[in-house]
Amino acid sequence: MSVDLNHTIVWCSDPQRSAGFMAEMLGLPGPRPLYHFLVIETGNGVSLDFAEKQGTVSPQHYAFLVGETEFDGIYRRIRERGLDHWADPARARPGEINRNDGGRGVYFLDPDGHVLEALTRPYGSGG
């Protein structure tokens, strides 16, 4: 049997807000309840299970490999919402996208400060 990522918990202050935001921004179906989580599923079957955390949420990084058309939609929604975004994880290139490895990439924040990334080519894949 291979080893595949099945799911991860995304801690947040408001699961409905956070799961809804991520699903909308990524163009995925809305979240569904499962036990005490709100779940969104990615195209490769990995689920993001949103759970409420009392107190401070420690920001994490979630990167999503997307197609060119999906990237266009994500980037359009970022601009329509007037969200801050960057070409790099250090946030040194605000308002830009990157073109690493012949693809495109962008970083933006969710409501709890998690760093979301959409990229069209895996880093290190050449281009």
CATH class: Alpha Beta
Number of strands: 8
Return the domain count.
Answer: 1
* Average pLDDT: 97
What percent of residues adopt helix (DSSP H or I)?
A: 10-25%
- CATH topology annotation: 2,3-Dihydroxybiphenyl 1,2-Dioxygenase, domain 1
Tally of contiguous helical segments: 2
Describe the structure.
This protein is α/β, with parallel strands linked by helices and 127 residues long. The chain has one domain: 2,3-Dihydroxybiphenyl 1,2-Dioxygenase, domain 1 (Roll), CATH 3.10.180.10. It has two helices and eight strands, in the order βαββββαβββ. The strands form two sheets. The chain has a four-stranded mixed sheet, covered by helices on one side. It starts with 6 loop residues before the first strand and ends in an 8-residue tail after the last strand. The model has no long low-confidence stretch (mean pLDDT 97).
Quick tags:
alpha/beta; four-stranded mixed beta sheet; 2,3-Dihydroxybiphenyl 1,2-Dioxygenase, domain 1; 127 residues
